[in-house]
Design the sequence.
């Protein structure tokens, strides 16, 4: 059965620290997609990244980077030199070909960046 | 280009009342979705639509109905609201099933 686990409920860091948000997924499909979304205090859901199961290259976008490892079924998200504006809830999601690509969300990780 | 919009932003209902939440998208997306977000539970899919005139049940469909009469609109109805339906409701849309879903700003619903 498909499942997404974000074991870190809440993380607090001091500004400029690096922080990694963990995402572990379960799927039997060979074709699937993984996503990260950010939900700032204002409440909207902001798309950050989409990764397909055939592309294990890590990705970097500014201070954000993602580490996709199929061997450990993980898709972790790192923020380098965190800023107060990074404070938000971050969701990881999985969509599978066999599930008609419906999203399965993790329960989210609340990141607090302290000045 | 407004993306995905939701109406209303906030609503208070009494138990047993009915209401309709409206979602509109201007990206010409085929697929539309309704989710609810509850504390500690992430987002759960209520209903979705793969095209105009079609709808399907998601993970938590009970107590809700939907309609997709126009491609750009997806309506979520509560016929008889219950306190358990107090939640934040998000609409999303995408080009295809495997494509990225883009979310609306959410509707906060409180059922007393």
Sequence:
């Amino acid at each position: 059965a498909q499942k997404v686990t974000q074991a870190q409920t809440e993380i607090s860091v001091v500004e400029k620290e690096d922080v990694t948000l963990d995402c572990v997924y379960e799927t039997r499909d060979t074709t699937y997609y993984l996503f990260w979304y950010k939900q700032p205090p204002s409440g909207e859901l902001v798309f950050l990244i989409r990764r397909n199961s055939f592309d294990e290259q890590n990705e970097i976008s500014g201070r954000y980077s993602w580490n996709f490892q199929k061997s450990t079924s993980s898709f972790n998200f790192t923020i380098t030199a965190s800023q107060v504006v990074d404070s938000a809830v971050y969701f990881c999601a999985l969509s599978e070909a066999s599930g008609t690509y419906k999203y399965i969300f993790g329960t989210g990780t609340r990141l607090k960046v302290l000045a | 280009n407004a993306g995905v919009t939701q109406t209303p932003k906030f609503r208070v209902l009494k138990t047993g009342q009915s209401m309709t939440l409206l979602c509109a998208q201007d990206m010409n997306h085929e697929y539309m979705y309704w989710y609810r977000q509850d504390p500690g539970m992430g987002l759960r899919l209520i209903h979705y639509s793969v095209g105009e005139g079609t709808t399907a049940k998601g993970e938590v469909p009970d107590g809700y109905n939907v309609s997709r009469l126009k491609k750009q609109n997806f309506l979520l109805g509560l016929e008889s609201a219950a306190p358990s339906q107090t939640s934040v409701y998000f609409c999303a849309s995408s080009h295809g099933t495997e494509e990225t879903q883009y979310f609306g700003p959410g509707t906060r619903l409180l059922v007393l």
Summary: Chain B touches chain A at residues 33, 40-45, 48, 58, 88, 90, 92, 96-98, 100-106 (CB under 8 Å). Chain B has a mean pLDDT of 94. Residues 47 and 101 of chain B are 14 Å apart (CA to CA).
